[in-house]
Structure formats: C-alpha cells, structure tokens
Amino acid sequence: MPSLSYLRALASRAAVVAAVALPLAGCAAPEGEGDEAVSDETSGALLTESQPVGTVLRATSTLNLRSAATTSSSVVDVIGDGDTVTVVTSAPQSGFYRVKTEDGTVGWASGKYLVVAGGSGPTSGSVAALEAIATSSSCASRSFRNRGRMPSGYLKGVALTYARAVCNPTRSDVAVVSRAQTGNDDKDALSWYESNFTAAGMSNATSGRSTLRHTYTLLLSLGMQESSGKHCVGRDTSASNTSASTAEAGAWQTSYDSRSASPELPKLFAKYRASRDGCLLDRFKQGVTCSSSSWASSGTGDGAAFQSLEKECPSFAAEYAAVMLRVAGGRTGHYGPLRTKAAEIAPECDAMFAKIERAVLDTPAVCDDL
C-alpha cells in the first residue's frame, strides 16, 4: 500500500503538471518544480553540514527517498513538498541525508531540497530559505532568448521583492499589479500577452495572488531582455532619449517621464527617494559587474535622481516596473521587449514564484525581515 507521503507527493506533482501542461511554444518544459521525484539534481545546495540525530528537516520540493546516497539507487518512497523528515544519521554522504519519513520509512534524501524546520541555518520561513527556493529552482537555470541565464543576485532580488508584495496585498501599488487583466492591449501587458498566458495555462481573469505572480513572471523576463538582469545599466548611449526626463536606467530601463502613467508611480518614487530601506541592492548586485560609467546619470534634477534610484535601489525599480507592466506595458507601451513580445513567459519561473508565495503564507513572520 502506498505511503501517505507518497500519495501527497503524487497530488503535489499533479497540481504542478496541471499548472504547466501547456508551455509556451519554444519554451523548455520545467524540470525542477514538481519534478524532483524523477531527478534529485539541481544547482545550489541548501543543507551540506552534519545535523544532530533527531533534527526535523522540511522538504522544499517533492523529492525521492532512495535506498542509498546516490541518484542511481532505487526509490523507496517520495517525500512531498513541505513534508517533514527526521535525521537518522548525523553526517551526510555525497550530499544525501539518511532520514525517516512521517510514516517510518528510512532512506536517503538530497540535501539540495531540505531545510532545517527549526533552528539556525536557512530555516524554513527565513529570508535565506526564500533565496534558496529561488536559486535551487529550474528557473535559475533558464536560458532566456539571446540573454542566457540570470545573474544569481537578479533572481534573488526579484524573488524577495515578490515575497514582499505577497506580504502586502492591500498596498495600493500591489493592488494595481494584482488586478485582473483589463482587456486594454495597448496599455496592459497581461491583456496584450493574453494568448501567451493562455497557452502556458496561466489565467489572469481574476484579481489576486495568481495574477500578481504572473505579472512578476513576465517582469523577470522583461528585465533580462532590457539589461540581462543588471541593476546598474544606464541609458542606451546610441539612443536619442538623453534628457534627464527621457533617459532610461536600471534593470528594466525605465525613464522618469513614465511617472504620469499611474498615480502609484510618483508615490513609489517619493517613498524610496525619502528612504533607501528595502532597496535590496546587496542582493541584486550579486554576480553583476558594474563599470564606473554605468552609474552616471543624464541631466540634473528629479530626472537624474530617478535614474540614480533605478540603479541604486533595484527593488524600487522592480516595484515601479511591475506597475508599469499593468498601466504602460502593452502593445503601445513603454517597453520595447513587451511591444514586440520578445519577453518570454517562463512557466518554471511562475512555479518558483508559487513556492515563494507558499513559503510566505506558511510563515508570515518572514515578512518582518523583508
């Protein structure tokens, strides 16, 4: 008779498969979210050190429980995403931990998908655990068209900015980003991309977290097309828009003259201009090299200050661009990669954001650290 954890794992995997059953043409099917039951391998580990016998660990994804500490050994059970196991042998072998499931089955599970359920380290519900969800996901290995993989800091920064939005669903800018697609193809990226989202099995017909998540999925791709995920990118030196108001800056290449598109945009600018708290620059800069010329701004005054803030406060740039996607991101909008649909929809990144969302909802105390 199948174990309870195995049945839960099958249900979890079925839900993920349903969510990504219709991937966008030309996009690789997701390998990590919900697929760990057939592959234990990923980039970036969560647990690597010895753990005291009896320590409770929590699975960050569905994964195999194997008869030995190798991916070639037989599968004796499947641990469901979010299920807990208990350490049986302190020292790991080849990255695997010998653990016991809730049903009493003993075997070896990859530390790449485990966090300590309580105590120090990247504990479940911590900011470090949120970052680990992002960097261990198949989204992290996604190769974007003509851009390649994301810098690790860009992925972490956008993931944490999204987590903060999940923490604050009633914040006025988040409400704009979370609302159902408007049907305005000229201005709303979700409306303009409706057929693409439908092909990927992602509906934006209702307001709420799923629409917020889908906006961030497209936002992630847009930043890769605009700047290869580099927060410090300045204006395009070959372009004619060189004034303080029109020069573009930051990971999403946004300009100050965009602020009239929504009352939320000046509010965000004023908020982060007054305080750099929550800019997440320490995350976004990981894996990125910035030249001294990158930091230069065009012109003076508020427009120049906006350019600097876009580069020096990348979480502001992300929140600002998320609103822009909904109010000036369509067929005739601000961003070329959206007008031409060069920005892709990556279902594996939507699945990553869904895990971030679940982690926040499971442990809302993490919001205090964001």
**Total beta-strand segments:** 9
* Average residue pLDDT: 86
Indicate the radius of gyration in whole angstroms.
21 Å
Structural class: alpha+beta
The parts where pLDDT drops under 50 for at least 5 residues are 4-45
The fraction of residues in strands falls at 5-15%
Proportion of residues in helical segments: 25-40%
Largest sheet: 5 strands, antiparallel
Number of helices: 13
Instruction: Compute the separation of the termini in Å.
Output: 44 Å
What is the count of distinct domains?
A: 2
- The 3D shape can be described as elongated
Q: Give the oligomeric state.
A: single chain
H and E string? HEEEEEEEHHHHHHEEHHHHHH
Major β-sheet strand ordering: 6-5-4-1-7
